[in-house]
Design a protein that fits this description.
Number of domains: 1
CATH topology: Helix Hairpins
Oligomer: single chain
Radius of gyration: 17 Å
CATH class: Mainly Alpha
Number of strands: 0
CATH architecture: Orthogonal Bundle
Strand content: under 5%
Order of helices and strands: HHHH
Structural class: mainly alpha
Largest sheet: none
Shape: globular
Length: 109
């Protein structure tokens, strides 16, 4: 599946207030789901000495899917193609790699 297909298909499941004019809802959902991913990783570190099981991978895959869903909805609300998000990110990272600035901080490095 490509990003455009995912964005279109996932949009059919978007049921929230003021859909089409509400970037706040998917932003809050994205933050919450990213927190759930972090929580699962934290518990693996705390409870399993950092050893990731197959069950952990399944659970994290589901949470990452929820993160992707909210990224897609936020992109749609802002009239941005999800494919463009992915392409711009790769362009940015390749530019940083070429300049030797993958490490460090700041958006414009």
């Amino acid at each position: 599946m490509n990003f455009n297909d995912y964005q279109q298909k996932s949009r059919r499941t978007a049921l929230y207030p003021n859909q089409g004019d509400n970037y706040v809802y998917p932003t809050l959902g994205l933050a919450g789901e990213a927190g759930e991913v972090a929580e699962k990783i934290k518990k693996i570190i705390r409870d399993k000495a950092g050893k990731v099981s197959d069950d952990d991978r399944v659970a994290i895959t589901k949470e990452l899917g929820d993160v992707l869903w909210y990224v897609s909805q936020l992109s749609t609300e802002l009239k941005i193609k999800l494919e463009d998000v992915a392409l711009k990110n790769i362009e940015k990272l390749e530019s940083r790699l070429k300049k030797g600035t993958l490490s460090g901080s700041g958006d414009d490095r």
